[in-house]
Amino acid sequence: MSTFDDAAHRELRELLGSYALGHLAGPEADPVRAHLDGCAACRLELDGLLPVARALGSVDAAAFADPAPLPPTLGDDVRRAVSEARSARDADEVGRRREAADLRARRGRVRLATVAATVVVALGVGGVVGGVVGRATAPEPPTVPTEAISMAPSPQRSVSVDSADLVAHTWGVELRIVAAGFAEGQTFRAAFRTDDGELVPAGEFIGVGDSPMTCFLQSSALREDVTQVVITDDGGETVLSSDL
Ligand SMILES: [Zn+2]
User: Fold this and answer.
1) Which of 65, 87, 104 is the last residue of a domain?
2) Is the pLDDT reported for residue 23 higher than 90?
3) Cα 28 to ligand 1 centroid, rounded to whole Å
């Protein structure tokens, strides 16, 4: 060691690792070998490095040169995982389609319910909501002929008539009236006057104010016998009338 200055010695010591790993090609290894011949300290160090180098070599071989063997079930595992993912996706798709179908069905039911509610409201306007106390029936089939009449409200009344029709039944005449403005809460009476002067009642209803109402007011007088239809308020005053 005494034959080398510190810098040259340090440089050779740094090469010892590469030398121990066998990384030095022939010409590079020669000066290291020459030095080792004459330097006990470096030979000692090399003795310590060689087991480490061998260990590194075995690690290299085991961990990097040969890949770890694949589990024999890997192929099946991958296929099963892919199959499960596909099944889950397909199930999702089926679920989405089913949800869409359910939604359509629900919408259909809602539409049907809305139609049903509309029918109930329409019937309610003619019956309960309209405030009919007397006889009120569901509309007859449209084949029943109706006779439009003009019902002029008394000038001081706020009643407005949208339509008024007579229906000549075999059992009596009916007034179908769509109107608004009958004083809310008051009871009104309809009647037909016959050609012998008698007033035949055709039912009562309660005014609902400005809300439009539809009333079917029926009497036992026959159409061919009536000459006038009259609606009076609870004081007996004429609100609407029409000569027939
Ligand atoms: Zn040395």
Assistant:
1) 65
2) no
3) 16
